[in-house]
């Protein structure tokens, strides 16, 4: 069983959780609440860059969230069937990370201010692009005929959009809505979203724990 070391929150670990679920890899969350635990991981040489998240899997200790995601993705066949698909997946994956990044400061900065920027700038920039890609592919997925890391990367941002703005966020983007509905209806993904592995929205408690562990 894999172990994911992180705070009790979404942050940079939620996509790893999503990918582990999609890959049907059993895992447990190891939440860090005290700085001593973090220092111990560093002293034991398990944190290559002295930062979280940390994924313990197959006898390895992996850091850097995108490296963790890609390792899991390769194990589960989520990286494309050929070089062309792999390149397309990589582009869309990175675009999904850019789409998601503006959500990360929520709670660390005034929520209303962050959401206004997302609504007025982030969503109008990225949703038309992903909708066009989804419409061109026409399968309910972004690349090919099945789930890939591209879908999961974009899904994390879409889940946040729905959480904060409702399903109305898909108005004018029917192909992207189809991707959202297709992926969230998969047993692995729907099961994850209902499980204890799906973290609640970040809140003041999360900020306090992060600051305590990292000595901010």
From TrEMBL:
Which parts of the sequence belong to the GST C-terminal domain? 82-210
Q: Which residues form a coiled coil?
A: none
Return one Gene Ontology term, BP aspect.
glutathione metabolic process
GST N-terminal domain span: 1-80
Family matches, as CDD domains: GST_N_Sigma_like (cd03039)
The protein's matches in Pfam families, at most eight in alphabetical order, are given as: GST_C_3, GST_N
The molecular function terms of the Gene Ontology recorded here are:
glutathione transferase activity
Span-the-membrane segments of this chain are none
Q: Which family does it belong to?
A: Belongs to the GST superfamily. Alpha family.
Q: What is this protein called?
A: Uncharacterized protein
What is the source species? Elysia chlorotica (Eastern emerald elysia)
């Amino acid at each position: 069983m894999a172990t994911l070391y992180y705070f009790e929150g979404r942050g940079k670990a939620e996509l790893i959780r999503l990918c582990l679920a999609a890959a049907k890899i059993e895992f447990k969350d190891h939440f860090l609440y005290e700085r001593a635990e973090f220092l111990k991981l560093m002293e034991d040489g398990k944190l290559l860059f002295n930062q979280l998240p940390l994924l313990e899997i197959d006898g390895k200790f992996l850091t850097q969230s995108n490296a963790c995601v890609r390792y899991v993705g390769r194990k589960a066949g989520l990286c494309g069937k050929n070089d062309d698909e792999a390149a397309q997946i990589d582009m869309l994956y990175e675009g999904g990370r850019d789409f998601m990044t503006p959500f990360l400061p929520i709670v660390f900065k005034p929520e209303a201010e962050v959401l206004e920027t997302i609504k007025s700038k982030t969503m109008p920039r990225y949703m038309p692009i992903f909708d066009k890609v989804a419409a061109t592919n026409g399968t309910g997925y972004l690349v090919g005929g099945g789930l890939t890391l591209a879908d999961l990367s974009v899904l994390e941002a879409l889940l946040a959009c729905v959480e904060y703005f409702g399903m109305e966020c898909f108005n004018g983007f029917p192909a992207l809505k189809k991707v959202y509905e297709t992926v969230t209806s998969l047993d692995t993904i729907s099961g994850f979203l209902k499980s204890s592995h799906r973290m609640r929205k970040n809140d003041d408690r999360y900020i306090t724990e992060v600051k305590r562990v990292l000595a901010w």
